[in-house]
Amino acid sequence: HARPAGDIASLVKGLDCNVQVRCGDKTADGKSVIQLMKLGAVKGSELEVKAEGQEAGKAIACLQQFMRSKL
Length: 71
Prior knowledge:
Shape: globular
Number of strands: 3
Structural class: alpha+beta
Largest sheet: 3 strands, antiparallel
Radius of gyration: 11 Å
């Protein structure tokens, strides 16, 4: 869980936007490794990602590519 959470946070950390990741009834700040780990997501979990801000589109595109290729 730590490696994918760290990878996700690293992808969006430097971007000018807020990213929220939801798994079930839990929501996490996409830039926080700890919060992402607390989601308890496992392979096959459905995640909902929302981004707001100047680089929101870039964040979503990066996360889509990452999730398709790595998870």
